Amino acid sequence: MSEISTKPYLIRAIYEWCSDQGYTPYLAVAVNGRTVVPRAYVQDGQIVLNVSMTATQNLQISNDLVSFQARFGGVAQNISVPIENVAAIYARENGHGMAFEVQLADGEQADAAPDSAAQPVLESDDKGPETPSPAPAKGGFGRGHLKIVK
Length: 150
What we know:
- By secondary structure, the protein is mainly beta.
- It has one helix at 7-21; strands at 25-30, 46-50, 57-61, 65-72, 75-82, 86-91, 97-100, 121-125, 128-132, 148-149.
């Protein structure tokens, strides 16, 4: 029997910490063919998703997959992200969280955005329509407080 990665456990822990502190948890994701996200919001093969309780429905963070339902442009969509595609989870308010090394399958590359003007971060909640948020700091996700975990 193979050992289960610590990555999904760390993602769940940071998510719970963000929620307990009243912060908004963001999930940075490398997008490829196995990732089900709205492609219009993908930029440079990445997307950052607001995964707070108010922005999602039926959020499940299993050992293999992060899945939930959210509204994008007013349209409800099912989102599905393999755990290995999660690049980081962090709090929007202070950038604290954790980054992970993303290892896509051999020969697999992250998808490029169909529209380079699309906003990579989409924030939604049950109080109103979605509003784009500022993109993560140039050169990576978050604000420099994240640590690569191998």
